[in-house]
Amino acid sequence: MTLLFLFALAALVVDARIRTALFGYVLFTGIALSFSYPGVGNIKDFAIFVVLALVKLVAGPASILWLEKHRGLRNDLRPSFSLGGRIAVVLTALGLAHVAARLPAFADVHNVGLVFFALTTSIAVVIAHRSLIANAIGLLALGSTVSLAAVVFVPHVPMSAELADTFDALLATLVGLAIAREIARENPELDVRSMRELRG
Amino acid sequence: MIPVVTLFPLLSFGIAAIPRRRAWRIALRSLFAVGAVLATIALVPHVDVLSGIFACLVSVVMALVVFFSSGLFPEPAKGHQAPWSRPSAFFLLVSAFWSAMLLAVTATTFVGLWAGITATTLATTFLVAHLGGRTALEAAWKYLMLCSFGIAIALIGAFMLARAAGDIGIVAGDRFSWSALALHGAQLGSPLARTGLLLMLVGFATKAGLVPMHAWLPDAHAKAPAPVSAMLSGLLVTCAFYALVRVEGVASYTSAAVLFDEVLRGAGALSLFLGAALMLAQRDIKRLLSYSTIEHAGIVAIALSLATPLGYFVALYHLLNHAFVKSLAFLGVGVVQHEQGTTSMGHLRGLRRGSGGRALLLAVVGLGGLPPGGLFISEILLVFALVRSGQHWLALFAVIAMLLGFAAFLRFALESAAGASATAASPAGPRALLGFANLALWCVGLGAFALAFLPFLPQAERLIELSRSLASGG
User: How far apart are CA B306 and CA B4, in angstroms?
Assistant: First the structure.
C-alpha cells in the first residue's frame, strides 16, 4: 500500500501528461480516503464519506478533463525540468519527508512521513510543471493531503471538518479552472512563462 | 444569533439581486447594507471584545464600499464578458466576502477561523479578475494559488496543535478552541505544538501579505477594481491579522512564544523595509498603495511580536486606522481613475481639485504617517514600544523604513496635487450615483480621521483593557 502511495504521488511530478497525473491523483486520493474510512462510525459519517469520495475522485478530475476537452488543450503539463530533473525533485521530496518524519516533534505520530511526502509532492507538482493545469492538480492533491493530515494527526477529527476541506479544495479548483478558461483565450497553452508581466 | 448575522449579507444581497429595475436593486442593497451593520452591532454582546471590534470594523467599511460601488460601479474592460463581471454577480461576491469575514472574526475555533479565511479567498478571486484583461486574470490566478496553499498549511498546523492538545488531555471538543488551548498553554510545550504554531503563522502570514509570502499582494491589489482593492487592503489583510492575533494569543502561553515572536518580528521587519523601499520604485498609484499595505503589515507584525500591552494596543489601533485610511485611498483612486482614465503616477495631475483626488491626498497624508492621522499616533507608539522593549536597533530601522514610505508618498503628492490632468476625462456616470459614491468616500474619510482621537476618548479604555488582557491571557 505504501509503495502504491509513493508511486501515485511520484507520477504526479514525473509524468508530463495531464491524464497520467490525474490517474496518480485519483490513486493517491483513493489510498488517502482508505485511511479515513475506519473513522466512519455511523450512517451520517458514511454518507459524508461517500460525498467526500465522489467529490475528490470524480468531480475534481472531471472538471479538469472537461477544461482540457473544452479548450482543446494538449495532453501536456509542460514540464519545467527534464525527466531526470523531475525524478530528482521526487527523490528530494522523499528525502525531505524522511527527515521530517524522524524529527522529535513527530516521534509519536504514525504515518507522518506519508503526509510530508504528499505535502512536498503537492507543492512539487506546481514547481515541476509550467501549465496552469498542473497548478490545479497540485491544488487538488493538496486538498487530499490536508484530509490525510487530519486523519493522521487528529484521528477522531469530525467528518464535517474533512467535508469542509474537501469542498474548499473542489471550489478552489473550480474557481481556478473558470479563471484558467478565460486566461486560455489569450494564452492557449496555459503556460506560466507568459505570466511574467506581473512583478509580484 | 451568530450564524444569522454571518449569513445576513449573503442572503440579503441575494434578495436584492431579484428586482428588474436597477434603482430598486440599489435601494434594497443599500437598505440591507445598513441592516447588516445594525445586525453586527447587535451581535457585539454575544461575542468577545476582539471579535466585536473586528466584526463592527468589517461591517462598517463593507457597507461604505457597497455604497461606493453602487455609485461608481467598476466597469469591466471592453470585450470581457465573464459571468462574474456582471453587476449582480459582483455584489453577490462582495456579500459572500462580507459573510466570510464575519464568519472568520466570530469563530471561536481555529477550524472555524480557517473556514472563514479560506472562504474569503474563494469569494474574492473572481472580484480580483472582475475587470478582465490578461494581467487581472493572471493576478487572480496567482492570488488563488498562493493563498490556497498558504491557508492549507495553516490548517495542517492547526491539526498538529490539536494532536498536541490531545496528548496533554484536552477533551476532543476543545482541541481547536483557542480559549482552551491558551488555558493549557503552559503544558503545550511539545515540539509538535511548536511546529503546529509555526505552520499556522506561515499560513496566515501568507494571507496577511507578510514578506516573503507576499508575492500575490501587489498584483491582486493593483489589478482589482478600486472598491475591491479597498476591501482587500483594508479588510482582508486585517482579518488575516486577526487570525495571527488569535494564534499569537495561544503561542504566548507556550514555550514556543519566544521563537514564534522572533519569526513574526523578522517577517514584520522584512515587510516594513522591503515594502517601504519598493514603494519608491513604483510608477502606478495602485501598486504604490499595495506596497504600502506590505509596509503597514510589517508595522502591525512587529507590534504584535512584542507581546506587551503597548505592543498589542499599537497592533490593534494601527489595524483599525489602516483599514479606514487604505480604503479611503483606494476609493479615492477609483474616483480619480474614473475622472482621468489612468492610475499612472506620471499622468495624474490636479488631484487637489476633484473630490476623489482630495480624498486620495488626504489618505496619503494619513498613510505617510503625518498628523492628524491615527497612523501617526500608532507609528510613534510603535517606536516608543520598541525602545521600551530594548529593541533600539529595530526602532531605528523602523524609523528609517517609515521615512522611506513617507518619501514615496511625498513625491507622489508633490507630482500629482497641482497642474491640469494630462488625460481626457472618461464619460461620467449618472450624477446622483456619483454623489452617492462621494458621500461614501467622505464617510470613510471621516472614520479614518475620527479614529485619530480614539486614544483620547474614554471608549479607548476598552481597547487598552483588551490589549492588557491579550497580554495577560484574558
Answer: 37
Contacts of the segment B395-403: beta carbons below 8 A, 24+ positions apart: B397/B269, B397/B272, B397/B273, B398/B269, B398/B272, B398/B299, B398/B302, B400/B273, B401/B272, B401/B273, B401/B275, B401/B276, B401/B277, B401/B295, B401/B298, B402/B272, B402/B276, B402/B295, B402/B299, B402/B369
- B171 interface with A at CB cutoff 8 Å: no
How far is Cα B49 from Cα B52, in angstroms, rounded to an integer?
Answer: 5
State chain A's maximal CA–CA distance in angstroms.
52
In degrees to the nearest 10, what's the CA dihedral of B125, B126, B128, B133? 130
List residues bridging with B284 in a β-sheet. B344
- Strand, coil or helix: A131: strand
pTM of the model: 0.92
Instruction: In whole angstroms, give the CA distance from residue B319 to residue B427.
Output: 36
In the numeric block, the cell 446622483 is attached to: B432
Element (H, E) at A1: none
**How far B385 CA sits from the closest chain A CA (Å)?**
32
Q: What are phi and psi of B39, to 5 degrees?
A: -65, -40
* Calpha distance B249→A77 (Å, rounded): 43
* Rounded average pLDDT over B93-114: 94
Chains A, B: CB contacts within 8 A come to 113
- Could you count the other beta carbons within 10 Å of the beta carbon of residue A79? 18
Task: Decide if A175 and B122 are in contact by the 8 Å CB cutoff.
Answer: yes
Residues 41-100 of B with CB under 8 A from A: 82, 84
Mean of the pLDDT values across residues B134-162? Answer: 92
Amino acid at A85: G
Q: In the numeric block, which cell numbers belong to residue B287?
A: 501598486
Quick check: B328 and B359 in contact, CB under 8 A? yes
What's the rounded Cα separation, in Å, for the pair B387 and B390? 5
Model confidence pLDDT, tens digit, residues B392-424: 999 999 999 999 999 999 999 998 887 776 555
* A111 reaches B (C-beta below 8 A): no
Instruction: Summarize pLDDT for A90-104 with one digit per residue, the tens.
Output: 999 999 999 988 888
